[in-house]
């Protein structure tokens, strides 16, 4: 059987969040890069959802965050790299979509996630006539506490910070 | 391999090119009833799979013969903005037909679908229902 980066050792299976001291960034983070394919959003959703479940993140907020990440990765694929169903795939060089999520615990135990999605393409405003687009950003904005997009020649970086979630059950 | 009973999935068979079927993540079925055309979707509707929802609705809307079209999304576990776009474009297509009415969308309390619909205000242009029979009879509860 060929080795796979997705092989999981028993030691990587869900572990409790350590009861960190006040204000300490929680050690666990999630970081991966995906090829800019149409299937990328579903891969990102699966990985992020598993990570959030490991953290025992509250269910409704977990669903919102998975939705927001899916929209962000879709934007990178569609607008950053201009991948579209049925269209020939442009030459992307070594372009990827990079996802980074970190958890921070505040003094009172409240947890927040800082989520970053970065691509190396150039977003283009939806062209006239392409209606019903742009809802992705509305959804991301609605699911986040803070939200920003920065774009330049080297790519586009979307950052969001979640609303606070209580400490997981059992962690004091 | 093509699935058996392909005629039960008259959604145009337009899978997104370049990916095997198991990565389509979605199942779309059209049921022709005497009183309605029901398009039932299960799985995840995202940028990869939304074109199949759109093409299924396009086929359904061309074969209504005065019947309403009902979109059953109760078994959908993920619904992103490309799904909203498919519903919006289908609504626009429906608006070109005589006797236009909003798409009848069955969501019940399925949060993965309700949430993006409400976040984007799409509940204003869609008629939402709790189950297929209510949608066919046309008495929205929402």
Automatic annotation (TrEMBL), chain A:
Biased composition of type Basic and acidic residues is found at 1-12
| Chain intervals for the UniProt region annotation (Disordered) | 1-24
Q: Report the InterPro entries cross-referenced here.
A: Anti-sigma-factor_SerPK (IPR050267), HATPase_C_sf (IPR036890), HATPase_dom (IPR003594)
Q: Which UniProt keywords apply?
A: Kinase, Serine/threonine-protein kinase, Transferase
- Name the domain of life this protein comes from: Bacteria
All copies of the Histidine kinase/HSP90-like ATPase domain together span: 36-161
Q: Which residues cross the membrane?
A: none
Q: Does the keyword Calcium apply?
A: no
Q: What is this protein called?
A: Histidine kinase/HSP90-like ATPase domain-containing protein
Native species: Pseudonocardia adelaidensis
Q: What is the lineage of its organism?
A: Bacteria, Bacillati, Actinomycetota, Actinomycetes, Pseudonocardiales
